[in-house]
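FIELD: query
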Amino acid sequence: MSKIILVTGASSGFGRLTTLSLARAGHTVYASMRDIAGRNAKSAVAMAAVPGCDIRPIELDVESEASAEAAVAKIVAASGRIDVLVHNAGHMMFGPAESFTPEQFAQQYDVNVLGTQRVNRAALPHMRAARKGLLVWVSSSSAAGGTPPYLAPYFAAKAAMDTLAVQYARELARWGIETSIVVPGAFTKGTNHFANAGHPADAARLAGYESDGPYKDFGAQVQRVFAEIVPEDADVQRVADRIAGIVDMPAGKRPFRVTCDPTQDGADVSFAVMDRIRAEMLHRVGLSDLLTATV
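FIELD: result
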């Protein structure tokens, strides 16, 4: 059955590919992005013109509660409902942790964590009223697997977002709203993560690491060694296809978590243990029903 889907951060990377995969599967996809009339205008026009696809670009800045509320209101007014929400919007920062200001850390959390909260608060009342729906969270293997240095703000925010996704899953299960957490590993090609990554605002602190001493030119070393372990055939389209596959599964049969990690950094093992421990605690206190959405 065709679904009404909202994808955040759809202008590029995982978001763009996911939007295309979902639309080609026959769904109506609202491709949300910032500045749809400005810097993302070409992307919006191109996506709306994809033959045989119902892609509807829509303005949504996850850093604005008003923007999230307005976007969801437009979707519900036009389509009557939201069946699936894909939390994909995110931003990366690269550099030694000490050289980022507290304000930069706060901005990273604002996009990658609080952004999901703003969109949830706009969309979930409609899903709860319908007593059905699906939240797909694009997490990161860094929350439980390999963690290259110089990505502290991004990794910390992604770990917080993953924890938030787990908690939401328990609090939405009795409303019939399912949760699937998709965990991509390191993909150094096919996304704009590194190209658009933020950089430290404290140039003096950065120079203290990169210009001299034991960490001289360490940033380049990190990018090189981790790029070398990513297989040549690592294709970001796999993440989009995995999300589209989850959406097309019958309600009640969707996986709680799946990994898509070309480097095999161990996140699948760590998450399996973490999720089992969390599940065992719910069994222990008699709240096992929260592990599966009431469909």
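FIELD: remark
The two ends are 16 Å apart (CA to CA).
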